[in-house]
Every structure is written in structure tokens, then in C-alpha cells.
UniProtKB/TrEMBL annotation:
It holds the Pfam family 4HBT. Coiled coil: none annotated. Residues 56-128 form the Thioesterase domain. This is HGG motif-containing thioesterase. The gene is paaI. One of its GO terms (molecular function) is hydrolase activity. Keywords: Hydrolase.
């Protein structure tokens, strides 16, 4: 069993930010990571927008960020947070409004069982006037693979 230490947290964060092809390409960063929560973000980038005027972040980016945060939040509950695995069973995304700036997702573990975990995720975005508002509320169920 691997303890959830600062070294384990740093290793998971490094993998997401530097080694994971898709997440690294999106510019995902881990802002905060505790035993039951994680906060992650994706910076606004024209390549990730819809062809609206003004451009808005594609909803798939918000869903990807929420899905990733929901799964990562459950990693500390694994017997081996680094070697174990997490796979999405179901993701329910409720979009509230368009995202016009950076995206931030805060995931909280609702329950982590032996083989299934559930996380709730809130995604926010900056508005053109600089305020931060919710853009999606997400619930994810994940298969937990205990190594």
C-alpha cells in the first residue's frame, strides 16, 4: 500500500502536467490536491474554442477537465494511488452557460468504495468582465482498480 504523501501527489501532478499527451496539450494544471479534493484548470486558448462571436470554450474541454478532476480526486483512496487505476463508468454533465475564459474544476469525493467511487465536480470560468461564474455541474462514477 502506498501512502498519499507529498511525493505521490507531486508524481501524479507531474504526470498530468508534463507526461500525459492530451492533458499536457490542453495545458491542464493541478492547482490544489488534497486527500478528498482536487482543483485543476485549463487556460483559455483559441484552439479550444467554438466558432462563436465572441469565441467560447468548447463544452468538451469542460467535460474533459471535470472527468479528469473527478477521477484524480479518487486516487488517494486507492491502495496504491500511483499504480492503481481509475476508469470512468458514467459522467453526467449539466452545462449552465458558455465559458468565455480559463476553466477551473474543483472535484470532491462523494464516496470511495472498494471498486467504485463517485465525485462531484464544479466547473467555473472567467467572464469577459472578469467575474468568475459556474459553467457546469458534473457527477462522475469511476471504477477503482486496486493494485
Amino acid at each position: 500500500m502506498t501512502e498519499f504523501t507529498d511525493d505521490v501527489r507531486d508524481l501524479i501532478q507531474y504526470h498530468i502536467e508534463e507526461e500525459h499527451g492530451y492533458l499536457s496539450w490542453l495545458g491542464v494544471s493541478v492547482e490544489e490536491f488534497t486527500r478528498d479534493t482536487v482543483t485543476m484548470s485549463v487556460p483559455y486558448d483559441e484552439k479550444l474554442t467554438n466558432t462563436t462571436s465572441p469565441p467560447t470554450m468548447h463544452g468538451g474541454i469542460a467535460a474533459t477537465l471535470a472527468d479528469t478532476a473527478g477521477g484524480v480526486a479518487l486516487r488517494p483512496s486507492l491502495s496504491d494511488p500511483v499504480g492503481g487505476g481509475v476508469a470512468t463508468i458514467n459522467l453526467n454533465v449539466n452545462y449552465l452557460q458558455r465559458a468565455s475564459g480559463d476553466l477551473t474544476a474543483r472535484a470532491e469525493v462523494v464516496r470511495a468504495g472498494n471498486s467504485v467511487g463517485v465525485s462531484e465536480v464544479y466547473v467555473e470560468s472567467e467572464t469577459p468582465d472578469g467575474a468568475v461564474e459556474p459553467v457546469a455541474v458534473v457527477t462522475g462514477a469511476y471504477r477503482l482498480f486496486q493494485d
